[in-house]
Fold this sequence. Notes:
Helix content is 31%, strand content 20%. By secondary structure, it is of the alpha/beta class.
Amino acid sequence: MFEIAPSILSADFSRLGEEIAAIEKGGATVLHFDVMDGQFVPNITVGLPVLKSVRKVTEMTIDAHLMIEDPGNYAAKFVEAGADMVSVHVEADVHLQRTLTAIRDARGKAGIAINPGTPLVHLEECLPYADFVLLMSVNPGFGGQKFIPTMVDKLRRLRAMIDERGLATKIEIDGGIDAGNIGEIVESGAEIIVAGSAVFGKRTPTESVKELIEAGTVWV
């Protein structure tokens, strides 16, 4: 079974509490929280204070994706602020194993995020320390981008890498996913589906989440 993780990056921040309630009503179980610092990616979004506020209005799993430099300095702090899952980029952390361990020690689920152009071999050694891998299917930094088609093959190779090692590591995928391609993505091994513009801004968030669940379930 797969889970839908709407990204609040695409939500209306003037009514964020209502938006979160709407996606929960549609069946979303994970709330994706994009953290950008303007250094690792060319954009600045939200941080610890906003996450603390969001934690007060929902019991959904909060999934913090840190697109920042020196993530090891902040990863455990996001767990302490209320995040249940925290992912850090393999490209940004030279002490990745230490950071993953720190997230787990803080009682969070630790994730490795990896960009489209980064070979899977770069996360291989740290897979045993990760509860999930966040595979980026667009280059991070902006919402509304188109899915990179070659990421389906990369997803399948990642699924095989995890399965061959007998690990329980889950696969999350983020970028350009909608009702038209979610089926193939779920069939290829993804278990947590991040969606931003496909949830917020078209129809109601509740209806959009239901549509994604239905489209993905057809292939399961």
